[in-house]
């Protein structure tokens, strides 16, 4: 890239960059900090690094969420202004505060990606490539960046994304843009196929299917299809499976709006890893589909899940092991660690 970004408040990151750049960068940095201790930005030559310039900006982490967000917005804005003034065309950002500072990963990643998107949007005629650099052991931070970068790509290219990722033939057209749930007619082959699969392992565990609803969340579907494309390209094979996920009704409503959010991971145990659990066995998922107190109805999703490369999981795994996409019990359970790795296709309501 043209510019590598560092923060003068992160001693570890600053030292790593300066050591990699060499004596020239170190001398300039020390001279500048001595002559201009209150300077917002210190610019040094690249030294041994493959860039044109290194920027060190003042930035302080905060435990206050609002202050943290604003500080990141200001940081990004200052970087972009200086990059454009030098007429540079590419930048590499660190994951601010996600190391020793222990800042909220969700806030940092979401704010960084959204602010970059905002900056690019108002400068559409200026070609700028932005890269986010994450340490190899920070797999959870990498996953968060993937999630929000894909979401931004979907937002920026929403119309082209929907065209590129052809919508399923079963999807119905609707004049209500906010409607995402559609009843699957009980007389349709679509309905019969879902019931047959559900019934294979659920006989004796349920008395009736109240309804089956198709989930037509275009935003989430587009994210999933982008992810699916990347999986197929990387693995040279289709690893998608149709799997079940049981949960209480309240959780089901959140999932339909905001996908299988990993922030709830661990609620029902982490025997095979701290991710989102799916099973090819509906009767296993049934145990987590807690009945509604009033109606006695239960909710279970039939989801499309990208398995990718999988390995045996255990309770010590906070994220997927390097080189793998999911963990498993070796039989019917699969655990995902990326929100866009699964798409809830149908919601089965039953007793």
UniProtKB/TrEMBL annotation:
Pfam families: Macro, PARP
Keywords noted in UniProt: Glycosyltransferase, NAD, Nucleus, Transferase
A cellular component term, taken from the record's GO annotations: cytoplasm
Domain PARP catalytic per the UniProt entry, residue ranges: 165-351
Alphabetized PROSITE patterns for the sequence: MACRO (PS51154), PARP_CATALYTIC (PS51059)
Coiled-coil stretches noted in the UniProt entry, renumbered to this chain: none
Major localisation: nucleus
Entry annotated with the keyword Translocase: no
Taxonomic superkingdom: Eukaryota
Subcellular location: Nucleus
UniProt-recorded Gene Ontology molecular function terms: NAD+ poly-ADP-ribosyltransferase activity; transcription corepressor activity
Cell cycle recorded as keyword: no
Documented EC number(s): 2.4.2.-
GO annotation (BP), single: negative regulation of gene expression
Name the UniProt record assigns to this protein: Poly [ADP-ribose] polymerase
Source species: Didymodactylos carnosus
